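Backbone shape codes
____________________
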Amino acid sequence: MQAKFIVVEGLEGAGKSSVIEVIKNQLLLLKVDQVVTTREPGGTPLSEKIRSLVKTVNDNEEIMPVSELLLMVACRVQLVENVIKPALKNNQWVLSDRFSWSTFAYQGAGRGLGLDRVDQLHQLALGGFKPDFTIYLDIDPVIGLERAKKRGELDRFELQQIEFFNKAREAYLTLLEAENSAVKIDASQPMDVVHQQVKDQIINYCRLK
């Protein structure tokens, strides 16, 4: 089976990291023996430095919304060209914790820059490159942020007001409606239930391919 690019999306506290591991293990059971995992922002040395910049609270200088958008897309270009495309070319499946939907949701909707502006920038930077399959973990922002708080100190994004995340969630749901290669899973369920539903989705996806 030809290698695929699978992305897990969702708000803070949705459980993306654990779901990535569930998918990886399920693919191994399905005899997919070459799997690369990555994350956004990040995934390359340069992108990890940018990740640190955008996620760390800086009282000395505010990051402007447009600057944040450009930094996120720059990270993505580095990741796509240096990690994702080479892996797929070598028939390695790629699993990513976040991709372009996060930018539409967080910068486009949350920061108010607009989904159209984000789309134009993505077309310029990445052309038509997109995931083969997306799993969106849907969660009420209040529940997600409570989970995030239990993990420890909150980062710059996790400290945003609840309205930011409400707007981001609405954008995620809008994107989901327009994409036939994506599924939604209720991430407010017990994690063992979420993980089983993720496994079922991966098994079904691979069966269809």
Q: What stands out?
A: The helical segments are 16-29, 45-55, 65-89, 100-110, 115-126, 141-151, 162-177, 191-208. The longest strand covers residues 5-10. Residues 84 and 111 are 27 Å apart (CA to CA). The mean pLDDT is 95.
